[in-house]
Write a structure and sequence with these properties.
single chain, 484 residues, mainly alpha, Growth Hormone, Chain: A, 3 domains, 0% strand, transport, transmembrane helix, MFS_trans_sf, antibiotic resistance
């Protein structure tokens, strides 16, 4: 049984290590959007290249995150976590040195592989190292500080882009890794799972990532209307069908189809797809809208987004406690509607928009909606399956959210009629943004209807979330489960 106490020097070092590692991935998931206009200008990239700068990372992260957790259980959690940190830092260095869009996109895909190793590994290290009496508080601190990192991300990214340059958004990960690795080697004990056996579902992970990549490519390049794009779309759908087939017939699949026998689990994941698709499109386009149309500097644009994450950090734990008393149906119905209203309020953000009267009201409503729904969503996912499968359920939900976000970033510009050079013209981008926000709002309304129709109150005896404080806007928090 793990026996490290949180108050001990070793406990503090372990917590520092896991926070540093997970913060690398969290920072990257929030700062890159702010840097996109400068990246496009410096590398002469069109809108499709900017979409891939976001999505290349999300494809590999969403496709491999479940496999990353399994690798840690088998080969050693510290070992796989450190591999992820080093891999992520090396890919970040390549991002920072990229001379053109293709190299940057490839490096971002490599970053996602590192993120899939270190993100589940950081939580697994906490659960494997700390005494059971301290584990919940350690996870709470890890989640809270990670949320602070996510909140600081847009501000820090804006400052770096406006000052040293966008390349430092990526290069900043290198000194973090140089600090994290020696601390982990010296203070973090190795651990594994003796019950982990059998073959890894590498084929399933590869097919899942391939399906996401091909569908994303088809959506981003659909404006061309070429035969190659059509064939890519067909290949993506074929890869998705093959993924489902493989997962249904493997002895130990990465994504066991049987887990979807729970109607509650299936319902809450459908809500997740709607909610995080809208969030992914919103934060991608809003960072561009504030700079391209409203004329904000990167620093001002990054700072402008702080209220949403700050509200989540301050009130997500209270929202979770309230949902425990009322049940998840009400917050999962009301939360998406608040977020939909926020996206319609964003239609007021045009050229020369005033922050206090045009931008801030929308972001405050957005934050209120996210506060209302994120914590209950996580709790409902955990409560909808057996306690022993809670960690798997959380990983699936996290991967579903990231996949929804990347599909939205690929599809929304197409649906809104954004041309390849739209972000270079304030008038063209503003018109497309005004078409995109109602689409996002409509997807959120659909999520609200699904929640009201399908989500039910879980029983009193179910797994409860350890992460009560949450500040990440790109995906729901990962949970290890195995607690009542």
């Amino acid at each position: 049984m793990p026996d490290v106490r949180l108050a001990s020097p070793q406990g503090k070092w372990i917590l520092l290590t896991t926070i540093l590692g997970s913060s690398m991935a969290l920072l990257d998931s929030t700062v890159v959007n702010v840097a996109l206009p400068r990246i496009g200008r410096d590398l002469d990239a069109n809108l499709a290249a900017l979409q891939w700068t976001v999505n290349a990372y999300m494809v590999t992260l969403a496709g491999l995150i479940l496999l990353g957790g399994s690798l840690g259980d088998r080969f050693g959690r510290r070992k796989v976590f450190l591999l992820g940190v080093v891999w992520f830092a090396a890919a970040s260095l390549l991002c920072g040195l990229s001379p053109n869009p293709p190299v940057l996109i490839a490096a971002r895909a490599l970053q996602g592989v590192g993120g899939a190793l270190l993100t589940p590994g950081s939580l697994a290290l906490i659960q494997a190292s700390f005494h059971p009496d301290d584990r919940s508080r350690a996870v709470g601190l890890w989640s809270g500080f990670g949320g602070i990192g996510a909140a600081v991300g847009p501000f820090l990214g804006g400052w770096l882009v406006a000052g040293p340059g966008w390349r430092w958004v990526f290069l900043l990960n290198v000194p973090l890794a140089l600090l994290c690795v020696p601390v982990a080697l010296r203070h973090v004990p190795e651990s594994g799972d003796d019950r982990a056996h059998g073959r890894f579902d590498i084929l399933g992970a590869a097919l899942g990532a391939l399906a996401l990549a091909l569908v994303t490519y088809a959506l981003i390049e659909a404006r061309a209307g070429s035969l190659a794009v059509a064939l890519t779309a067909v290949a993506g759908l074929a890869a998705a069908v093959a993924f489902v087939y493989v997962e249904r017939h493997r002895a130990e699949p990465m994504l066991p189809p049987g887990i979807f026998a729970s109607r509650q689990f299936t319902a809450v994941n459908l809500v997740t797809l709607c909610v995080y698709a809208a969030f992914g499109g919103f934060f991608f386009l809003t960072a561009l809208q504030l700079q391209v149309v409203a004329g904000y500097s990167p620093l001002a644009a990054g700072t402008a987004l702080l209220p949403t994450t700050a509200l989540m950090l301050l009130f997500s734990s209270r929202s979770g406690a309230l949902a425990d008393r009322t049940g998840p149906r009400l917050p999962l119905t009301v939360g998406p509607l608040l977020c939909a209203a926020a996206m319609l309020l964003m239609l007021r953000v045009g050229q020369d928009a005033h922050y206090l009267t045009d931008v801030l009201p929308a972001l405050l409503v957005m934050g209120a909606g996210m506060v209302t729904l994120v914590a209950p969503l996580t709790a409902t996912v955990l409560a909808s399956v057996d306690t022993a499968r809670a960690g798997l359920a959380s990983g699936i939900n996290n991967a579903a959210a990231r996949a929804a976000g990347l599909v939205a970033v690929a599809a929304l510009p197409l649906l809104a009629g954004m041309g390849p050079e739209a972000y270079r013209s304030a008038t063209a981008f503003d018109a497309a943004f005004d078409r995109a926000m109602p689409i996002c709002a409509g997807v959120l309304v659909l999520g609200s209807v699904l929640a009201f129709t399908l989500v039910r109150r879980p029983g009193p005896e179910c797994c409860r979330p350890q992460c009560r404080t949450h500040g990440n806007v790109t995906a729901p928090p990962l949970e290890g489960g195995r607690r009542r």
